[in-house]
Design a protein that fits this description.
Elements lengths: L1 H9 L4 H20 L6 E2 L9 E3 L2 E2 L2 E2 L2 E6 L7 H10 L1 H8 L3 E6 L5 H12 L6 E5 L1 H10 L1 H8 L2 H10 L6 H18 L2 E5 L1 H5 L6 H17 L7 H15 L3 H12 L7 H13 L10 H9 L9 E6 L5 H8 L4 E4 L11 E5 L23 H9 L4 H12 L1 E5 L6 H10 L8 E6 L3 H5 E4 L2 E4 L4 H21 L2 E6 L4 H10 L4
Parallel strand pairs: 5-6, 6-7, 8-9, 8-12, 9-11, 10-11, 12-13, 13-16
Antiparallel strand pairs: 1-2, 2-5, 3-4, 14-15
Helix pairs in contact: 2-6, 2-7, 2-8, 8-21, 9-22, 11-12, 11-13, 11-14, 15-16, 15-22, 18-19
Length: 506
Amino acid sequence: MIIDDIIASIDEGGPKSYYSFETFVQHLLKHHIESQEKELLIATDSMKYGDAFAPDGFDQFVGPTLIEVKFNLARLPVKSFIERSIYRLLNEYTENNFKNVLIVSAKPISEKFLIRVEDELSRNNLPFEVTFWGPADLNKVAFKNRRVVNKISSNLFSLRLSSAISKPIRDWKHEREEIVENLKICYKKGQFSLFLGAGVSSSAGMPDWNTLLNSLFVTYLTQEFDDDVAMGDKDIDDLVRRLNSIDEPSSLMAARYLRKGLSKGDGEAKEFIEAVTKNLYKLRNNNLAIDSELIKSIASMCLPRRTGAKVKSVVTYNFDDLLERQLSNNAILHRCIYTDNESYDPDELPVYHVHGFLPEDRKAYDGLDNSTLVFSEEGYHQIYSDSYHWSNLVQLNSFRESNCLMVGLSMTDPNLRRLLDISSKNIERSKHFAFMKRLSSSDFCYEDKNGGKLKVIQNTDASDKFLERHHTLNEELMKELGVTVIWYETYDDIPEIIRAVTKHEN
């Protein structure tokens, strides 16, 4: 069959397969229905559920027809499918008053599944008819429209993106409210994990990567040249700035260079660890509260509720101990895990430092020397190349078993994206969430110069349209990794959203 070949070509597992199949079905049916001089609307803003809507019906479907696309119905228990996919359509029915629901599946639907669904539905007086199509039914439509089938199947991502950006300009803040409502539901279920990046620590004044690297350059150069030539801090700063501008080393390469210079021997040298730790806390901006609103809101998420702890684990890529301090202030039992032989009690919240742990007071923790510090290329390559490294297994386990919220991460780390890609093979739609900063027109079109604003993009209308497409493209790419983007404009938005998620859970 035509459809079997197409499904086989896109069946990679995970959201990417689902979204590819969804796009194929939407555009195949659009061509098919429009050839009957009828209309098909693809995921309109007025539709809360459903992937397409035929207001005048088509083929044997008389009257308004809602279309829902699934990849593999066999994965869902019948009762769960009815509750998630049928009963929720009753809310949509009150708004669109459709007569039919067509559910299209990429995988064949077993007779046993259909009998059980029909038996369950017969007990309820639904105001619409439910019909199932498997590959054989879809193949009949594909055969009638075989001229366009190859064109659709070879341009799935571009068609998907085109559909997304051709919609009317969206109110992204309104969409964010709906996403946050979904996040609340996931949080209440309790199988929830937090993934924290540098943005969390920087909210409390901790230095960013480049600032830390530059400071370590200063440490290294001072150590090397103080006895040879007279050199002040300004001289060192000038050399560092010039080296960065001409050589432009990647941050991981620069860290490797530094580690070789600051270490006296092979391996994770004590001198190097001490230098990084000293500079990490020395550079903290003391004008910012160490217990930032973001860190406090994250700790609040971890508080046990009446129905138990909602956050099962925290995975952090940060070296510092600021979150642990806040957890202690809130009397939340927790255990820092930074090696493969650590364990925790059932009533403790595990905080995994998967890139290493550099607490300010090293005496308060045991076994720190056994922690892999992912600061330079060597450490990064060690973890990236070892599929069974404990830190990779911890992240994969969280992605597979929990709904995860990612805070303070740029989402560009190749190992993180690789692990998300691996874990998403067992899901159809996005189950994780990530905060990402939305570019505003003013930030994009203007740059700070000499204390004022210099306009660098003259055509602001064109930039607005470009940014809308830029954000849409990012959303679609993140969906393929199983991640829904939660956009924010300022960093103050994040703790407010987190509080909104937790405020009704006491």
